[in-house]
Amino acid sequence: MKILKRIQEIKNIGNNRQLYNEQWVETKKALERYAIEDGLKVSEDIIGNLFCRLEGYNRSKTISIISHFDSVENGGAYDGIVGILAGIEALGMLKKKFGTPEVSLEVICIAEEEGARFKTTFLGCRALFGDLKYENLKRLKDKQNISFFKAREVIGLKPFSQKELDRCQRNDIITAIELHVEQSRYLEKTQIPIGICTHIPGQMKIRMVIVGEANHAGTTPMFERKDALCCAAKIISFVEHLGIKYEGVTTTGYTINAKNATNIIPSKVELIHDMRHHDPEVFNQMLEDLTNYAKREEEKRGVHIEFEKLVKIEPVELSTEINEQIKKVTRQIGLRQMEFKSGAGHDVQIMSSHDIPSGLIFIPSVEGISHRMEEYTKNEDIVNGLNVLALTIKNLSYGLIL
Questions:
Q1: Is 334 exposed, middle or buried (CB count within 10 Å of its CB: 0-12, 13-18, 19+)?
Q2: CATH number of 119's domain
Q3: How many structural domains comprise the chain?
Q4: What is the pLDDT of residues 234-279, one digit of tens each?
Q5: Structure pTM?
Q6: According to the annotation, is 279 in a ligand binding site?
Q7: Annotated binding residue at 273?
Q8: Residues 49, 119: one domain?
Q9: Does the pLDDT of residue 402 top 60, yes or no?
C-alpha cells in the first residue's frame, strides 16, 4: 500500500511540524501531491486546512475523514499523519473501484490541533465552526515572540479579516470519522488490532501569570517576600491534586520564571495547566476548584494572578450508530475490536460537539509511546486501520445507510 511509503516520506521531512513553520509547509505540499495522485480535488481555507475531495452525486452533503498534520515539538511521524494518509488512500481506492459515491467524501487535513506553537489547541477544526475570533488570533505569540500573523507572513500567507475567517465555516458535513494511533497501551497489551472510541474527555488549557515582587534573595526576610515562584509551586501541586482527587488527568507542562536567577526573588511566573475529564460536571468543578485555590493563594501571598482560559472543549460521547458500523466492518474483515474511552483530545471531538455524528478508530501504538520521535505503529496495524476505515466509509457513502 502507498501509505507505508508515504509515512516514511513525511518522517523524512521532519517531526517538528508546528503551525506555519517550514516542515509544516513541506508536509502540506506532500499531502496535496498525494491527494492529486489519488484523483482527489484539493483546496484549502484561510487557516491552512487542506481539503481532499471526491465529489458525490449529492454535493450538498459530505462525509469527512478528519485528522491533523501538525505535531508537537520533536514529535513523531504517526500522530495525526496516519489518519490523513489512510483517508487519502481510502478515497483513492473507493473512487477507482466504485466510482462516484452517493454523497461527497472528503479528507480534512487539519492545519493545527496540538497547540504546540501558539499554546491554544484545535485551531484548524474550530475554524470550521466559527469558533475562532480574529481578535484572539491577534494576541497569539510563540515562545520566540513571533505573532500568529507574522508567522503566516514569513511563509507568504496573506493577512485576513474576521469576515474572511467566517467563510471557513461548514454546514455540509453529515458524518465525521477519524483514524488515529492509540497513544496508549490498551490495544498492545490485549493484542487487539482495532479500538473503537466511545468518549473523548473535556480539555481545558488555563494560563496563569503570577506577579510578585523581585528583591534580594539574601537580605529580604521570608515573611516580607512576594515570591511568584513559590506561589506557582503551590498551584502546580494543587493541579496535580485535582487530577488525583477527581480521577482525571492534570498537567502543568509549561512554565516560565521571568528572572530565573539564583539570587533574585522571582517576580513573575507564567504557567499553562492542562486539565481533562470525561464527566462534564466534574470537568467544570475542577476549573472552579482551581480558580478558588488560586484566589486564596493570591490573597495569602500578596501577589497578583492573571487568569486566562486559552481553550475549553467539553467532553463528548461519540455516535453509537457510527460505532456499530465500525464493529460490523471489523467482523466482516475478521479483526477483533474493543471499545474504550480516549484519554487524549481529537479533532473529531470538535465535530461531535457540533452535533455531527462522529466515530474514532484506534490502532495500536508500540509501548504506548507518543509525542516523541520514537512513536511507532506496526505496518500491519496501519494496513488494518486503513482497511477498516475504507470499508466503513464505503458502507456509509455508497450504500448510504445514514
A1: exposed
A2: 3.40.630.10
A3: 2
A4: 999 999 999 999 999 999 999 999 989 999 999 999 999 999 999 9
A5: 0.91
A6: no
A7: no
A8: yes
A9: no
